[in-house]
Amino acid sequence: MIEWNENISGEQATLNLEGKITFENAGELRNRVKAILSEFPLKTLTFDLAGVRFVDSSGLGLLVSIKNTMVKRNGSFKIVNITETVRNIMNQTGLDKYFEI
Amino acid sequence: MEGKGLILIVDDEVRITDILNLYLKKEGYRTLTAGDGLQALSAMAETTPDLIISDLMMPNMDGIEFCKEVKTRPEFSNPYFIMLTAKATVDSKVEGLKIGADDYITKPFNVKELVARVNSAMRIKALQNEIVEKNVELERYKAAMENELQLAARFQESLIPPDGDISAGIRLTSIYQPTIHIGGDIFDVRHAGDGKIVFFVADVTGHGIVAAVISAMIKLSFIQAAATTSSPSAIAEKVNHDIVSTTSEEHFASVFLGSLDPDGSSLSFVRGGHPAPYLCRQKGEILPLAPKGFLLGIDPDAQFPEQTVPLFPRDRIVMFTDGISEAEGPNGELFGTGRIRQYLAKPDASLAGLRKLANQWAGGQYQDDFTLVQLEILDKTK
What we know:
The complex is a heterodimer of chains A (101) and B (382).
Chain A: E1 2-9, E2 12-21, H1 26-39, E3 44-55, H2 57-72, E4 76-80, H3 84-93, H4 95-98
Parallel strand pairs in A: 2-3, 3-4
Antiparallel strand pairs in A: 1-2
Helix pairs in contact in A: 1-2
Chain B: E1 6-10, H1 14-26, E2 30-34, H2 37-44, E3 51-55, H3 63-72, E4 80-85, H4 90-98, E5 103-106, H5 111-158, E6 164-167, E7 170-177, E8 185-191, E9 197-204, H6 209-228, H7 232-246, E10 253-260, E11 266-272, E12 278-280, E13 286-288, E14 307-310, E15 316-320, H8 322-325, H9 336-344, H10 351-362, E16 370-377
Parallel strand pairs in B: 1-2, 1-3, 3-4, 4-5
Antiparallel strand pairs in B: 6-7, 7-16, 8-9, 9-10, 10-11, 11-14, 12-13, 12-15, 15-16
């Protein structure tokens, strides 16, 4: 189960997510991010993960592909406010450096 | 007229069968009439009606008996059953519904209302038939897919080495449990071209069919690399390249990869974003094997720094995938690596025991594939 609020203004957008990012819902989130990126001229996309208590490997895959997409359009992707469990997952996989958390 | 369906009218009052016959024919239905349940059943031996309008009180076989027969015999393919009754009592309605009548009309009735109910019943019946057909189709499709998955699962199992002694000094034990027949976990142990023993455990993003296909590719890439080198970092670099160049950016893998001297005296290893395995020393010490290293399949230039440790007889290397460490307990708490480590410190710890513990934690419900692999250094003095 994943829910989020969107704050989009100018070239910046922040998604405040809540729940778990997993195999079951990564597709839903991917579709929304795609739609936002095609609709707005974003340069910075931020995921606030304060309310996210778990990310599985499919969720990590989605985050990696969002970062790659943002880099390709000369923008940046930031992940902020991660919980302890998510920090452990990022540390174990080495993605903490990749996302500059 | 063919298209509107066949209606069987059953009543011992000819006045009623006549009037219903007249109105339903005018509406475009084909009709049959019978004077009681027995006559109706013999008519149904010849042809199967789509809908039956039957009186409740009749000689020989009454409406309730008749309805029971109709609804319990599959060869009649469950026609819609409207019971006509003079008794507007709650009792007879309840009894009728219990034996499976679909609708009730109380005598005396308005013929136009009855025709309207018949029309709506025929629409319901048509929809029911459509659903039944669709269900049969879906069941057939599901069975075919299940069969495909079973075949794929058998193939994937054949990719995994069997338990047993890999060399005179090393024994393999494993537990492999995908979520839906096949999965993204894979491992292998084999002799490298130079005689050393190389092994890996990998977990591909997600689970299911795509993950399974990528896991097979990783094994192939590993086999190719091991033919020419036993260096864990060199093998990891080649596998990393192969994943980067063949899969989408959302697909990558966490890997633990090592090489052993055939006599089991030393272990070299790299870790690519994989949960750190535990080296369980015979004396009870537990060491996480956690060199730094990034997931495979994202950065083509990733490096995998290698570490080496000496091994002693009866040491065990216990590797696992996050399906077990991230197994969720009843309140959403993860099983965690701490519990794995704590369990492995017990003198009688085994993979089966660890699985049992995780099963208890997760209530047998796993969101992800899970794999346990143990390499044990044999005590040759025994």
